[in-house]
Automatic annotation (TrEMBL), chain A:
UniProt subcellular location: Cytoplasm, Perinuclear region
Name this protein carries in UniProt: Trafficking protein particle complex subunit 2-like protein
InterPro entries with a match to the protein in the record: Longin-like_dom_sf (IPR011012), Sedlin (IPR006722), TRAPPC2L (IPR044760)
A Gene Ontology biological process term: endoplasmic reticulum to Golgi vesicle-mediated transport
PANTHER family, per the entry: TRAFFICKING PROTEIN PARTICLE COMPLEX SUBUNIT 2 (PTHR12403)
Organism field: Pyrocoelia pectoralis
Similarity field: Belongs to the TRAPP small subunits family. Sedlin subfamily.
TrEMBL record, chain B:
A single BP term in Gene Ontology: intra-Golgi vesicle-mediated transport
Residue stretches spanning the membrane: none
Keyword entries, A-Z: Golgi apparatus, Transport
TRAPPC10/Trs130 C-terminal domain: residues covered: 975-1115
Ranges in coiled-coil conformation: none
Protein name listed in UniProt: Trafficking protein particle complex subunit 10
Domain (Trafficking protein particle complex subunit) ranges: 413-528
UniProt keyword annotation of Transport present: yes
Pfam families listed in its UniProt record: Foie-gras_1, Ig_TRAPPC10, TRAPPC10, TRAPPC10_1st
Length: 138, 1125
């Protein structure tokens, strides 16, 4: 189960940010922000070595004592970040991966919404609900 | 080589143990060379289960054989067991062998077989001497015997070797054979043993769910395997064993957390008592080890293996996950520890790894070093800070006695650990850091600095900035606000450039606090403004900062400039003037819509928008500006943020091995991750020339405000809207220069001058009026300025009524106000004879004279002809009306100069009206004396004309009576010859008939007055010019007659034939002067020799055709005659 999820635009500004405990949001923002460094590094190195550019999942970006931060980047350089509690031992890489895939799918749906202006922060309630569902592993 | 101090106490001889039996004295001679020779070359280690073949170097440690030292079934410490056994003998004689050696070998093998050992070798050492060499080969040797006896199927277990001590050349091959055989067999033994051990390990592992299973026992067992592999130099495989142990241990803890904790794990759940630092390098695991010690040992082992395989950076990279896992497992196992103890341990572990990394940090590996150690530095500094906070070592704190006790406790728990040569060990460092506040500060700042540098080096700027925030808070505690502000500012910029507004706002709050502490009012105000305008911050906080800002503003002595940033956003700018162009002295009008983010209303003392005159730089921007008159927030945003920046997509094709296309993609090779350059501080700009708000003061309310900015346009030119400044007392908020250029063009209109004729065309010889229009432009002209007009020759003008017309005049400008118009009537008169005219205008506002071309039409056309009757001459003058204006003509005269009289043949008693298209003719007879000479006559025709005004026409037509004069030049008018033509039927014919020849009698007579003259052209050429449809000239058509000898008439008869019947006009005869080619010498008047005769025509009037107009009657040809002829 994820504790925090974020969608970062291609200009690295947050488009959507949520976490289970709203009081911790600021702390998570710092963590997610610093994870962008790793995303950048991975993307830059990835293109250099000519690795499979179709792989969107970036894997574990970095881990903290209590949290692990995973990343995923779409072809249009929209970054999805998921933070999970590292004490949650039941969560495997594959589950994180599928979480990202679901997140990508609902993000794509949201972008398809004609009332959503791409690159604007996402305020949709239904989107929020869907993300919370994904985070809780439902 | 790997930086690990090998002089530690734990120096186990890690060489396979080989026992020796039989004739030991034989072996001892060979032992040294064998020990040396074995590790010199590699040998293949073949293993079952399809694992790859590895090349292994192997050494050996030889011990005497003893049955008691043989490994037992349950003993798995392979490295301390002899696994290979050799029997040495020197026996060369088969009989001796049979009697003594054979029994010995038999009992040796029995001992081995009892322990189920099959890894043995019997070596027969042969000593070649002269005696043996001469002998024939024996039928059977001892070796053959031994083979037959003990190893019928395993021939390789027995080997003979020529003693290398005796005969070096021959023994080399056999010696190499022995060494190779020993290597091979030892490895075979080990391969077998390892497989057996692996099976055992697997077997043991499968029992792990049994309650009495103990991890530590298993641990030692598998470590044994790892050690064997290590001994064989298979470090990577040894690492796999340790990794397996690591994972298994973690799994137990995780499982225990979820389900039931394994029994043996309870042993680890005792409270933490020691937190000795992790030590890389050889170490020994003690019995009753604690959790941390086990973990540390395991990591040290893994690290050791990694270092042995030169994977130092993987070791570093593994460290942090390992530490995190330890922390997690400490929690899962509920291991209690004194506060700070775990932090101590973690810090020490980090430092130990970092120190090791430092040893490996070579020039070519700097990148890897930084990349792998950055997070470790960060973790270490975080832990140190935790400790500092815990122990009251942070600046501004005073450690309580409790905290001092804690430091003592923690230091004790760390134990003692001496550093490597000349270096402080991590333990010593930490102890020192915890000893005093100063030491702590120094250590912490040093560590944090290193962390930031490392992060920056690997491009993790954001992480570095976050560390910066930590440092800033530390400096705040140290009251070093300047340093803190620098770090906060850096972080703020990074957050803003990434668009993380909430973080930026939070940082801004910190920054405000920092400036408050520093007592930097000006910066404090700027920060307060930013905080109070941040929607991410709680309203109460915003309001409090806003109020503080206002309070501080009152005390501000100098003006303060703060950029707009997010405080005030420009939503829309519209130029209200038509098309953005403004007439000079008009009002420039711009509407500005801003979104004010202040939480409360704010009273602005002034709002201005700069106008930048167009310059070369600006011109380049012109393309951007297009013709927009409004910019909205999107335009502003797109330019500055370029959100919709085009991704540089590229084609990417994947090919299969056979060069077939596998897939085609579009990829973005360079993700748009370029950081924007930090915002440029507002450049000083000129606020002298700007749009202003008229109604001041103005209240800016939170949210959307519409502000009207105006200015009188004084200067001409293009102006770009520059930046907006909002002044609140001494605080001026200034926007960035607008990226999207809006242009206001201030123009002026020049005065214009026009000269118009009326509806009708201009006429010569009549005074007409024209209109001079003056339109004053956008600016006034000086009051006493004049327009100078000058007319071309033959034309006169005047603008004052009833005043004499002149060739040049000055028209004063009466109406000088902008945009006023004035009209002056201009009278124009052009003389008849002249051609096109022009009026040149000179205006006061322009140096260049303006020529206006006027074209006049003639009033009437005149033509004249000379008529002759014999010797009398008449002048026929015809006037043709050419204008719509009717003219009354009166008193027409023809006057000659030389007192030659004329006689009017027309009636001149009344006036005539000349209309358009109407001819009026006058005829005068010139009364001259007839003579052969005709001096040129100069005559002047004159008539008076008056324009007749009809009632419906305006009165501005000039009705004064004027004289029209035309000069005539008449020359060669005297009659010289008379020509008479007569057509008569031929003799015998009464009439001229069609088709019948007739005689044409041509008679040329000189005029009577010619007789007196001497010098006349005496040769004439005549030509019959007959109408070809009427007359056919037969025979001669031309000829020359001469009056050289006498002046008698010359008669020439020619033949012509009429072609039509009826009254036919006579054929014409043309006379020309004939000048012959050969000029007579007497004729002196001719100059130069003429090679050809030539003709000169006579002037009209010189030849008088008497029969002009005569006709001859021709009757039709008779049919009969026609048929007869």
């Amino acid at each position: 189960m994820a504790v925090c999820a974020a969608i970062i635009g291609k200009d690295n500004s947050p488009k959507y940010f949520t976490c289970i405990n709203p009081d911790e949001e600021l702390g998570f923002q710092y963590k997610v922000l610093s994870s962008l460094d790793v995303v950048e590094e991975k993307l830059n190195n990835g293109t250099k070595s000519g690795s499979d550019s179709r792989e969107l999942y970036l894997g574990l970006l970095y881990s903290l004592e209590r949290h692990k931060i995973y990343g995923y980047v779409t072809n249009t350089k929209i970054k999805f970040i998921i933070v999970i509690d590292s004490t949650n031992t039941s969560l495997r890489d594959n589950e994180v991966r599928s979480m990202f895939r679901k997140l990508h799918s609902i993000y794509a749906d949201n972008v398809c919404n004609p009332f959503y202006i791409p690159d604007e922060p996402i305020n949709s309630k239904s989107f929020d609900k869907s993300v919370k569902n994904i985070m809780s592993g439902a | 080589m790997n930086g690990i101090d090998s002089s530690a106490s734990d120096t186990v001889d890690r060489r396979p143990i080989i026992t020796c039996a039989g004739e030991l004295e034989v072996f001892s001679a060979l032992e040294d060379s064998l020990t040396q020779a074995l590790p010199q070359d590699s040998c293949e280690l073949r293993r079952s289960l399809g694992r790859p073949v590895r090349l292994v170097h192997i050494g050996a440690n030889f011990i005497p054989f003893s049955p008691t030292a043989l490994p037992k079934e349950s003993q798995w410490d392979l490295i301390r067991q002899p696994l290979f056994h050799v029997y040495w003998t020197e026996c060369a004689d088969v009989d001796v062998y049979k009697t003594a050696v054979k029994d010995d070998i038999e009992s040796w093998l029995k001992e081995l077989a009892a322990k189920e050992i099959s890894d043995w070798l019997i070596v027969v050492v042969e000593n070649y001497d002269g005696k043996r060499a001469n002998k024939l080969l024996p039928r059977t040797t001892v070796l053959d015997k031994i083979r037959a006896d003990y190893a019928p199927k395993q021939g390789d277990r027995c080997i003979s070797v020529i003693n290398p001590g005796r005969s070096e050349t021959r023994s080399a091959d056999s010696w190499r054979g022995l060494v190779g055989r020993v290597r091979h067999l030892v490895l075979v033994a080990y391969a077998k043993a390892v497989v057996k051990l692996e099976d055992h390990v697997r077997h043991q592992r499968e029992k792990r769910t049994e309650p009495e299973w103990d991890f530590m026992n298993y641990f030692f067992l598998q470590e044994e395997l790892a050690q064997v592999l290590e001994m064989l130099g298979l470090y990577d495989e040894a690492l796999v064993q340790y990794d397996e142990l690591d994972v298994l241990f973690s799994q137990f803890i995780v499982n225990g957390h979820i389900g039931e904790l394994a029994n043996w794990l309870h042993k680890f759940q005792k409270p933490l008592e020691r937190w000795h630092g992790l030590k890389l390098g050889p170490s020994k695991l003690m019995q009753n080890t604690s959790f941390l010690e086990l973990r540390a040992y395991l990591f040290a082992k893994q690290a050791h293996m990694l270092l042995l395989t030169n994977k130092v950076w993987e070791m570093a990279a593994r460290c942090l996950p390992f530490l995190h896992a330890c922390v997690k497992e400490l929690i899962l196992l509920d291991i209690t520890a004194p506060s700070g103890a775990v932090s101590c341990w973690l810090f020490l572990a980090c430092m130990e790894v970092l120190q090791t990394c430092n040893h490996f940090n070579q020039l070519d590996q700097v990148e890897a070093y930084f990349a792998n150690t950055a997070t470790l530095w960060a973790y270490a500094s975080q832990k140190l800070r935790e400790l500092g906070e815990l122990c009251g070592l942070m600046p501004g704190q005073n450690p309580t006695s409790e905290q001092l006790h804690m430091v003592v406790g923690l230091s004790a728990g760390m134990g003692d650990c001496s550093g490597r040569s000349g270096e402080l060990s991590p333990t010593d460092k930490l102890k020192k850091a915890l000893s005093s506040q100063d030491a702590f500060n120094k250590n912490y700042l040093e560590l944090v600095e290193l962390t930031m540098v490392t992060y920056k080096h690997i491009g993790h700027l954001r992480s570095a900035r976050l560390i910066g925030l930590e440092v800033a808070s530390f400096y705040m505690l140290l009251l070093e606000t300047q340093k803190a502000a620098a770090f906060l500012g850096d972080a703020l910029r990074t957050f803003e450039s990434d668009g993380w507004h909430e973080l930026a706002a939070q940082t801004q709050v910190k920054l405000a606090e920092c400036y408050r502490k520093a007592d930097d009012v000006r910066k404090f105000i700027a920060s307060c403004a930013a905080v109070s305008a941040a929607p991410e911050i709680d309203n109460l906080i915003r309001l409090s900062y806003f109020d503080e800002m206002r309070k501080c503003l009152d005390n501000l002595d100098k003006s303060l400039v703060v950029p707009f940033e997010d405080i005030i956003k420009i939503i829309n700018i519209t130029i209200k003037n038509n098309n953005g162009s403004v007439m000079q002295d008009d009002i420039m009008d711009v509407h500005l819509i801003v979104d004010c983010n202040f939480p409360r209303e704010v009273l602005c003392t002034n709002i201005v928008m700069t106008l930048e005159p167009e310059s070369k730089e600006n011109k380049k921007m012109k393309d951007k500006s297009v013709n927009e008159r409004t910019i909205i927030v999107k335009d502003i945003k797109h330019n500055s943020n370029s959100i919709l920046r085009v991704l540089h997509m590229q084609r990417h094709l994947d090919y299969k091995q056979d060069k077939q296309l596998s897939s085609a993609n579009v990829v973005c090779k360079s993700p748009p991750f370029k950081r924007k350059s930090s915002t440029i501080s507002p450049q000083p700009c000129n606020f002298d020339f700007c749009l202003e708000v008229t109604e001041l003061p103005l209240v800016l309310t939170p949210g959307i405000n519409i502000i009207r900015l105006t200015k009188k346009a004084t200067d001409i030119g293009k102006f770009y809207l520059g930046r907006v400044a909002i002044n609140i007392g001494k605080l001026s908020l200034i926007s960035n220069p607008l990226n999207f250029k809006l242009v206001i063009e201030v123009t002026k209109e020049e005065p214009s001058l026009r000269l118009d004729k009326g509806e009708n065309a201009l006429l010569f010889g009549l005074e007409q009026t024209m209109q001079l229009f003056l339109k004053v432009g956008s600016y006034a002209i000086s009051r006493d300025s004049v327009i100078k007009l000058s007319a071309s020759r033959g034309m006169t003008i005047q603008h004052i009524p009833n005043e004499q017309l002149t060739s040049s005049l000055e028209v004063p400008i009466t109406n000088v106000e902008p945009f006023s118009t004035s009209m002056t009537l201009l009278r124009v008169f052009a003389e008849h004879s002249s051609k096109d005219h022009q009026i040149t205008l000179v205006c006061p506002w322009s140096n260049k004279p303006i020529p206006v071309t006027l074209s006049f039409s003639p009033l009437l056309a005149i033509s004249w002809r000379l008529h002759t009757v014999h010797n009398r001459k008449f002048i026929h003058v015809t006037l043709l009306g050419q204008t719509d204006t009717k003219l009354q003509l009166s008193s027409s005269h023809l006057d000659f100069r030389d007192k030659i009289k004329t006689k009017a043949l027309h009636i001149d008693s009344y006036d005539q009206i000349l209309e358009k298209g109407v001819n009026i003719s006058y005829v005068w007879e010139i009364l001259t004396i007839q003579s052969s000479e005709s001096p040129p006559l100069k005559a002047q025709f004159s008539t008076y004309y008056t324009a007749i005004v009809t009632e419906d026409e305006s009165t501005n037509i000039d009705t004064t009576t004027r004289q029209f004069i035309h000069h005539l030049d008449i020359a060669n008018y005297q009659t010289l010859y008379r020509v008479e033509i007569d057509v008569q039927p031929t003799k015998g014919n009464e009439f001229c008939r069609v088709g019948a020849l007739c005689n044409l009698n041509l008679c040329i007579k000189p005029a009577s007055h010619m007789l007196d003259t001497v010098e006349i052209e005496t040769s004439l050429m005549y030509e019959v010019l007959a109408e070809p449809t009427v007359w056919a000239v037969c025979g001669r058509t031309a000829g020359v007659v001469s009056f050289e000898t006498d002046m008698e008439p010359q008669i020439v008869v020619l033949e012509v034939m009429p072609l039509n019947n009826g009254f036919l006009p006579l054929p014409l005869v043309r006379l020309s002067k004939y000048i012959p080619a050969d000029v007579s010498t007497s004729d002196k008047s001719r100059k130069g020799a003429e090679s050809h005769p030539r003709l000169e025509p006579f002037s009209p009037g010189q030849v008088y055709n008497v029969s002009k107009g005569h006709q001859v009657y021709v009757i039709a040809a008779t049919v009969t005659e026609a048929t007869v002829t």
